[in-house]
Amino acid sequence: MTSGNPRRLVVLRHAKSAWPDLPDSERPLAPRGRRDAPAAGRWLREAGCVPDLVVCSSARRTRQTWDLVAAEFGTTTPAIHDARLYGASAEELLGVVREIPAQVRTLMVIGHNPGVQELVLLLAGEAEGYALDQARTKFPTSAIAVLGVPGPWSSLEPGAARLTDMVVPRGGGGQA
Prior knowledge:
Number of strands: 7
Structural class: alpha/beta
Largest sheet: 7 strands, mixed
């Protein structure tokens, strides 16, 4: 790890989805999700957590979340839509993260519960403040966890990361 410039893993649960009569993978964002996703993007931009690369589930609601988050960055970030993230366990998500090239310093994974919450809990060996308690208690839609990651992605192990932030940005004037 480069001193003063650790890798960061940003884990984002998709924004609130609607429940129309569609297959689960095709569910769109609900009105609240369309408000909350931009708030997540603003929080990430203001926190200096704009990713170098995004790996996003191929489900409609995660793709829509990413589009709304990305619009807040003011820059173009490459995104990979990966079907493996849909319904993935923490271990499967970790396998995807381990494939990321070493030059990526800030990676964002956009996926689904329970996998994203379990990934954060699997990786977080340490945490700042109450972040780990928050992540254990609830990982609602639009939740963002930021983990400091030592070393290359390929050697990331359970318990090796430090959970630095756990927030749930909300649109419409509400705060995290």
